[in-house]
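User: Teach me something about this protein's shape.
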Amino acid sequence: MNRNRVTRNAIGIIGLVGIWLGAFFPEPCLGAEIAYLRNGRTLVIQTHEVVGSKIILTLDGSDRLEFDKDWVESFVPLESPPTPLDQDLQQDSAARQYTVRELKEIIHLTAQKHQLDENLLASIIAVESNFNPGALSVKGAQGLMQLMPETAATYKVKNVFDARENVEAGAKYLKDLLHQFNQNVTLALAAYNAGPSTVANYKGVPPFQETQAYIRKVVASKLIPLPRERTLLAQRHGAAGEEKSQD
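Assistant: First, the predicted structure itself:
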């Protein structure tokens, strides 16, 4: 049987599996995740594992699904019940809520602090995470500005899902990229997506369809205001930004 057809059939039944799990297991187990698929469906899973070009999703018990990892856009951890020790830290944890007004203020103040174009900063966030503070990509990029772990470590981020910390680090990284590429916004965006050494090696925007599409999306989204009348949660179920290719 055609391999692509098998993959499409597997993806087609995932929505039904997710509904079945939601009906019989309404309380998520500790460590559970939500997988966001390319076809717009979501699936509650226990764990996932990337093996080469494949991704393996473990459902309840020993049931597993395997298909091309490109079919999964992102993973978001399900909220677990807070322990008494967590109560005092709840305001600074990944479970806190962010209103649109709060996010706008964070973006405005951070852009002002680092002398960045506020619309550009907001546009990057829109493309990277769709304003979801809890966004997590398959490749491990996290939070509003989809920071990779090494980038978060470089800018000393303690809680990558904290909106202020994430945007602060992302803004610093963007400013450093703009400085590295002589304030060329296009090259800085290419570097944010594909890595600065990749841009340097190609002496310009690399010939990657993903990177070129990323630049177009960021530029286009500068015409779109932040979403209205919505409360954004760090654990909110939303799509992560596009996966990045890293150095």
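Now, about its shape. Strands lie at 33-37, 42-45, 47-51, 54-58, 64-68, 72-77, 97-99, 231-233. The CA atoms of residues 32 and 173 lie 31 Å apart. If you'd like, I can walk through any region in more detail.
User: That's plenty for now, thanks!
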